[in-house]
Amino acid sequence: MGDRKHSSVEEIPSFKEDFPSLPIDSSILNTLIEDAQDWAHANGLVMRSSENKSSSDSCIHAPFSLLPAPFPASLYRQALQVQDATARLYHRIAYDTQWLLNAHENVIKTDEFTRNLCDILKKVTDEGLAQRKTLVIQRSDYMSHKDPFTSEYTLKQVEVNNIASSMGAHAERVSSLHRRVLSLLGMEEGRIKAAIPHNKPVIMIARALFLAWKEFGRPNGVILVIVEDVNQNQIDQRHIEYELTEQGVNPALIKRITLTQCHESVKLDSDRHLILDESTVSVVYFRAGYSPDHYHSHKEWDARLTIERSDAIKAPWIGLQVANTKKVQQVLAEDGQLELFISNFAEAASVRQTFAGLWALDGNDPVAEKIIKISSHNWTTEMSSCVYKVLLYPLTYFIQHAQAKPEGYVLKPQLEGGGGNFYGDEVCDKLLHATAEERSAYILMEKLRPLVVQSYLVRAHNSTQLAESVSELGIYGYAFGNDIDPPVVATGGHLLRTKGKLVLEGGVAVGASVIDSPFLYEYRGE
């Protein structure tokens, strides 16, 4: 660390003067890693091993970064400030069934999973929603993106997660771990407190579920947690259940069950109550159901429809899940679409400011036609990375300047949970061989250029080396309410996921990232 004398004032640190000097001496590094691994096991920062995902009798520590990742304090504050507006936005979108169906009109022609979700949405809307209020527990993900024209770092949205927003328990533990590591390295307490922000997402998530449970009005009402058949990250979920019991829910009322088991075990009564083993379900908390892999047959889809037809408060309900697609993210970026749901100009502008470049690939979209036309002329690897120019400038300008400052892009399907994206030449191949209808199931997104820092990524049974890495910041929040009144919203807690600079996919669950926390700093000309 820098040698300057710090006052007791909790001023946001300067990265150059306050962050630990790298690399760390090997003897100190090994001691820190051993201490951190012991702390992780002692404090529940663990997950099931990949060799035994179905049981907790063999656990390893969750992958984490030994040091927090530098992140601009101004962008962190911006992400916090926009979260309530984002939660309200998706709460409103979910109730506009016709807008959602129109947005996915071309997607569902070839995307069976999204089509099934839309079918359920239409059925329950036509029938009339039984639940009085709805709940979204959300995590909005961003990167600190280096603008290719100004070279300044700006906050850009990667995606919004309305279902199974995970890693909150692990995230808050890593924040605590990083405070310990910085203290062991000699950083003063006031500087640590300023650099590592308060982080308690579990309490906020549990409070949202408790609020819904109380609203339903049955002291013996069940909280049904829909889980995957095999879940390596079960411990992270359990921390939320434990906090629910601290807030007053009898642990016997919290039931974990798969969609397959729901088909055999849950039913609707004449009042549209959801019944599990003769008990009424108050809240359904989906920690599964976001991937085609979770629906093995019609049984799981039938179970989902039964749940959605009930008066149990769902987190999320089907409208919020349909609103969670990449297609909705892209449509909202179009002129005037976001403003349909946010009437306040300043609030709409604050949300829109975080949008990255997003474009439709519908068969009749003029941008898509330009891309396909150029693709058919034998794109080279270098030219294939220049699609950004197609989208910003006239075609003749693109051809003339294709070799200068090429920008990247990502082709994204509607899937959640990490994986499935296409990069580089894969995009060219997909566009060349897909039909117009098949292309409609994807969106094209500007490939962000995140801040690159040095990190020690600690994974169980692996050596730890200093590596260039990039991070993605997630902000947790919720919205709870009906389709008439403004919903109750709250923001609380964050997650930072860090991965190697050259790793394309994200997500801890898919093995790409480690759990991290931000080291907030102010840029002071360093």
Automatic annotation (TrEMBL):
<dbReference type="InterPro" id="IPR016185">
    <property type="entry name" value="PreATP-grasp_dom_sf"/>
</dbReference>
<comment type="similarity">
    <text>Belongs to the eukaryotic GSH synthase family.</text>
</comment>
<feature type="binding site">
    <location>
        <position position="159"/>
    </location>
    <ligand>
        <name>Mg(2+)</name>
    </ligand>
</feature>
<dbReference type="InterPro" id="IPR037013">
    <property type="entry name" value="GSH-S_sub-bd_sf"/>
</dbReference>
<dbReference type="InterPro" id="IPR005615">
    <property type="entry name" value="Glutathione_synthase"/>
</dbReference>
<feature type="binding site">
    <location>
        <position position="499"/>
    </location>
    <ligand>
        <name>ATP</name>
    </ligand>
</feature>
<feature type="binding site">
    <location>
        <begin position="412"/>
        <end position="421"/>
    </location>
    <ligand>
        <name>ATP</name>
    </ligand>
</feature>
<dbReference type="GO" id="GO:0000287">
    <property type="term" value="F:magnesium ion binding"/>
</dbReference>
<feature type="binding site">
    <location>
        <position position="416"/>
    </location>
    <ligand>
        <name>Mg(2+)</name>
    </ligand>
</feature>
<feature type="binding site">
    <location>
        <position position="472"/>
    </location>
    <ligand>
        <name>ATP</name>
    </ligand>
</feature>
<dbReference type="InterPro" id="IPR014042">
    <property type="entry name" value="Glutathione_synthase_a-hlx"/>
</dbReference>
<keyword id="KW-0547">Nucleotide-binding</keyword>
<feature type="binding site">
    <location>
        <position position="161"/>
    </location>
    <ligand>
        <name>Mg(2+)</name>
    </ligand>
</feature>
<dbReference type="GO" id="GO:0005524">
    <property type="term" value="F:ATP binding"/>
</dbReference>
<dbReference type="InterPro" id="IPR014049">
    <property type="entry name" value="Glutathione_synthase_N_euk"/>
</dbReference>
<feature type="binding site">
    <location>
        <position position="423"/>
    </location>
    <ligand>
        <name>ATP</name>
    </ligand>
</feature>
<feature type="binding site">
    <location>
        <position position="237"/>
    </location>
    <ligand>
        <name>substrate</name>
    </ligand>
</feature>
<protein>
    <recommendedName>
        <fullName>Glutathione synthetase</fullName>
        <ecNumber>6.3.2.3</ecNumber>
    </recommendedName>
</protein>
<dbReference type="GO" id="GO:0004363">
    <property type="term" value="F:glutathione synthase activity"/>
</dbReference>
<keyword id="KW-0479">Metal-binding</keyword>
<dbReference type="Pfam" id="PF03917">
    <property type="entry name" value="GSH_synth_ATP"/>
</dbReference>
<dbReference type="GO" id="GO:0043295">
    <property type="term" value="F:glutathione binding"/>
</dbReference>
<feature type="binding site">
    <location>
        <position position="505"/>
    </location>
    <ligand>
        <name>ATP</name>
    </ligand>
</feature>
<comment type="pathway">
    <text>Sulfur metabolism; glutathione biosynthesis; glutathione from L-cysteine and L-glutamate: step 2/2.</text>
</comment>
<feature type="binding site">
    <location>
        <position position="497"/>
    </location>
    <ligand>
        <name>substrate</name>
    </ligand>
</feature>
<dbReference type="InterPro" id="IPR014709">
    <property type="entry name" value="Glutathione_synthase_C_euk"/>
</dbReference>
<feature type="binding site">
    <location>
        <position position="139"/>
    </location>
    <ligand>
        <name>substrate</name>
    </ligand>
</feature>
<keyword id="KW-0067">ATP-binding</keyword>
<keyword id="KW-0317">Glutathione biosynthesis</keyword>
<dbReference type="Pfam" id="PF03199">
    <property type="entry name" value="GSH_synthase"/>
</dbReference>
<dbReference type="GO" id="GO:0005829">
    <property type="term" value="C:cytosol"/>
</dbReference>
<feature type="binding site">
    <location>
        <position position="159"/>
    </location>
    <ligand>
        <name>ATP</name>
    </ligand>
</feature>
<feature type="binding site">
    <location>
        <position position="326"/>
    </location>
    <ligand>
        <name>ATP</name>
    </ligand>
</feature>
<keyword id="KW-0460">Magnesium</keyword>
<keyword id="KW-0436">Ligase</keyword>
<dbReference type="InterPro" id="IPR004887">
    <property type="entry name" value="GSH_synth_subst-bd"/>
</dbReference>
